[in-house]
Amino acid sequence: MTRDPAHQTVLDIVHGTCVALGTHAALLRGESGSGKSDLAFRFLALPDGDEGAPRLVADDQVCLTETCDGLNAFPPASLAGLIEVRGLGIQPALSISAARLVLVCSLVALADVPRMPPDPWDCTVLGGISLPVLKLAPFEASAPLKLRMAIVAATAHLRAAEQ
User: Fold this and answer.
1) Are the beta carbons of 115 and 16 closer than 8 angstroms?
2) Residues 90, 94, 98, 102, Cα dihedral to 10°
3) 44, 54 contact by CB (below 8 A)
4) Of 16, 75, 79, 88, which is least surrounded by CB within 10 A?
């Protein structure tokens, strides 16, 4: 990140949880109790890889700012480095202060996840920026790995589009 997100104008504050792999992030969206924090907590347990370390950006509320290359996501100051762990309450988590948003994950029931993603992926617009959307069933054992793979795929697609 080249700029301090705390000194930028917040475009929007969205309800959701945001996790990063290195400096690229995914926004997890879903109803209250849909598994956003739970999936993020399990994602944080993945080992570091070539793409970077799994980290929390923000839980519950995510601030978005526009940059010259897209959207940055960061937490409100009062929630930085904190995640809700059902049954244990608010807990500290490995976190990053900001990351480039490359993907939105809609958390849905397993029956609503298509066998194959649409080609091209569905998109949504946040802060005037189009982002790919992937449907995930958050409570599947493989969901954190799928989330990691999706961030890697979205990042690769973004890099190819920028060249």
Assistant:
1) no
2) -100
3) yes
4) 88
